[in-house]
Every structure is written in structure tokens, then in C-alpha cells.
Amino acid sequence: MESVTAEKKLFRFLDQLNIQTRTLRHAPVFTVDEAKAVRIAFVDQMNGGHGKTLFVRDKKKRYALVMVAENRRVDLKSLAGKLSLGRIFFASPDRLKETLGVVPGAVTPFALVNAQNPIDTAPGFLSPLTVAIDTALTAQKTIWFHPLHNEATTAIRPTDLLKFIKACGYTPLEVDLE
């Protein structure tokens, strides 16, 4: 029930921004491989780039939400340098839920709707969230991410995703993660 309410909030916000999306429902997926298997049923409907989203932090508790093309292997040391962070690792599920309102398996750039106005951060949140997107995704005509839960996938144009991120109060950093 919580995911349905959250999804409705997200889609209302996207509508207010005049951003069109398309969502396809499917069985829950928790990994890229599971998502690929589900897409077989939607082979002609899910064209475009498919992303995975990482929520990471460094020792200074600086956080980043990073959208990456699903087939890219991410070198965390290299990523940290591109984001001007120290050594990074994955943030805890508790911090993920507290900061973005989602759980592991449902990490998505759309979760920024739950973390709007970065100046008003949660207690203990020591710095603004860095938001980065892989240029391999922004080069696509359409990109696909979960809409705050892992039982659906939503298509959005990259320019509209960047518009959404900015409307949530963040300046997206476009990085080449190859």
C-alpha cells in the first residue's frame, strides 16, 4: 500500500512538471539479471536504455545517488574521484529509507521526489546529496527506472529526467562512467 501511495505522489509531481512517462507492471525484481528476464515479456515495449541506481556514501557521510547504464560495471574508486568524494561504499538500507524513502531493490532517481529541497536535510545528514547520471543514459532516447518500487518500470526521456531532478532541488552531474 505504501508503494502505491508513493507512486501516485511521484506521478502527480511529474504531471505538474508536464513530464510524460509510461509505466509497465511486472513481477518484483531485485537485480539487473531479474529485470532483464522480466523484459523478455515486454520485448517490443521497453526500448531504450535501462538504468540501475546506486546510493553510496564516503567516510565523511557525503552521499551520492548515481544512475548508471545497467550493463556498466562500476569501479567505486574511479566513481569516487569523478564525484569528488573520498573512498565510497554502499549506504545502509536504513539511511536509504530515511533519505530517499525507498528500500534496496527499488533505488531510483524518482526517489528524489521524497528528498526535495536538499537544504532541509534529515537530522545527521551532513551534506547535500550529489546526484550523478551516466552519459550513456543521457544519450538514449528513453530510459527506464523503477517508480519507487520494484514491481514496475517507468520510461522517461533523459531531458525530462534532468528536469525532474532539478525540480527536486538538485543539480545533476553528468559523468562518463565508462
Compile the SSE list and pairings.
Blueprint: H1 2-16, E1 22-25, H2 32-39, E2 49-58, E3 63-69, H3 76-82, E4 88-90, H4 93-100, E5 130-134, H5 135-138, E6 143-145, E7 152-156, H6 158-167, E8 173-175
Parallel strand pairs: 2-6, 3-5, 5-8
Antiparallel strand pairs: 1-7, 2-3, 2-4, 6-7
Task: Give an overview of the whole structure.
By secondary structure, the protein is α/β, with parallel strands linked by helices. It has a single domain (2-175), classed as YbaK/aminoacyl-tRNA synthetase-associated domain (YbaK protein, Alpha-Beta Complex), CATH 3.90.960.10. It is 29% helix and 22% strand. It contains six helices and eight strands, in the order αβαββαβαβαββαβ. It has helices at 2-16, 32-39, 76-82, 93-100, 135-138, 158-167; strands spanning 22-25, 49-58, 63-69, 88-90, 130-134, 143-145, 152-156, 173-175. Strands 1, 2, 3, 4, 5, 6, 7 and 8 form an eight-stranded mixed beta sheet that branches. The radius of gyration is 15 Å and the shape is globular. The model is unreliable at 119-126 (pLDDT under 50).
